[in-house]
Each structure stands twice: as structure tokens, then as C-alpha cells.
Design a protein that fits this description.
Blueprint: H1 13-63, E1 75-81, E2 84-89, E3 95-96, E4 109-117, E5 129-138, E6 145-154
Antiparallel strand pairs: 1-2, 3-4, 4-5, 5-6
Length: 155
């Protein structure tokens, strides 16, 4: 009797399962890294948009020639028409979208301007005011609120 030995050239089920586990681990790590990168980019975009809105509030504040900027309660400013800025008390809707348009469905930035007489704020310059402009929003990470703040002195 003649015995034939067959060469096993196929993969065993254990080898296949190990390969699937290794590939799954690599793909899972790539997914987590990509997601973290996307969140980081979106977080940076939010801060840039908020800073742009704060700067816009400062520019409107500089260009305002009315007595509205002597408000002692928090307020915000937004362009209702290209020619004029509207002063909105804080109890009104002071939210804007990333383009600076108020009262939109995606308005996520809450803007406030607070005024303080410079002498009351610890500064000895008479007849000047310090304006603190702040934008706040719920961060994309969902772990609290983001905030951008700038201070402007008006003489």
C-alpha cells in the first residue's frame, strides 16, 4: 500500500481570525484618529468664527456715533441694513451665525458687550470707557462652552 501525503497549503481558521483582528484594530485606530482630527479642526474653526464676530462687534462699536454705546447694561450690535448698526439689549436675541447674521436657525454665537467707566474699572483715565466684547458658544466637543473676549478702550 502506498500512502500519499497531501501538502496543506490553505490557511486555518485561526490564522484568518488573527488577520481579521489585526486589520480591525488598525482600521479602528485610523477611525479614532480621523475623528479626533475632525473635532480639532472644527474647534479651530469655531474659535476663528467667534474671533471674527468679536472683531466685527468692535468695528461697529468704533463706528457708532450715537449715544447708544453709553448703555450701562450688556448689549450687542448687528447690521440690520448695510448703512446702520442696531443696538440690541442683552435681553433681546444677541445670537449670530458665523457670517454675523442675527436670528438665524444656526445662530450659535451669543454676543455681549459690557461697558465700564474706566475709573470704575481701576483705570485713572477720565472720560473713557472700557468695552468688553465676548462671544460664547457650546463647543463642538460638547464639553462646555467656548469663549473669545476682547477689551476696547474708548476715549
Amino acid at each position: 500500500m502506498h500512502v500519499r501525503h497531501l501538502n496543506n497549503t490553505g490557511d486555518t481558521i485561526v490564522e484568518v481570525l488573527i488577520c481579521i483582528a489585526v486589520v480591525s484594530t488598525i482600521l479602528g485606530g485610523a477611525f479614532v484618529t480621523t475623528r479626533q482630527s475632525q473635532v480639532g479642526v472644527r474647534d479651530s474653526q469655531e474659535h476663528a468664527e467667534a474671533l471674527k464676530l468679536v472683531e466685527s462687534q468692535l468695528e461697529q462699536l468704533r463706528g457708532d456715533t450715537t449715544d447708544a454705546i453709553t448703555e450701562s447694561t450688556p448689549f450687542c450690535m448687528y447690521n440690520e441694513t448695510p448703512e446702520s448698526a442696531v443696538i440690541a439689549p442683552q435681553d433681546k436675541d444677541c445670537t449670530q451665525d458665523s457670517g454675523g447674521v442675527a436670528n438665524q436657525s444656526d445662530s450659535r454665537y451669543n454676543l455681549t458687550i459690557t461697558r465700564c467707566a474706566a475709573v470704575a474699572c481701576g483705570n485713572n483715565i477720565a472720560n473713557s470707557y472700557l468695552f468688553t466684547v465676548k462671544a460664547s458658544w457650546v463647543e463642538v466637543t460638547g464639553q462646555g462652552n467656548g469663549q473669545e473676549t476682547m477689551v476696547y478702550r474708548l476715549y
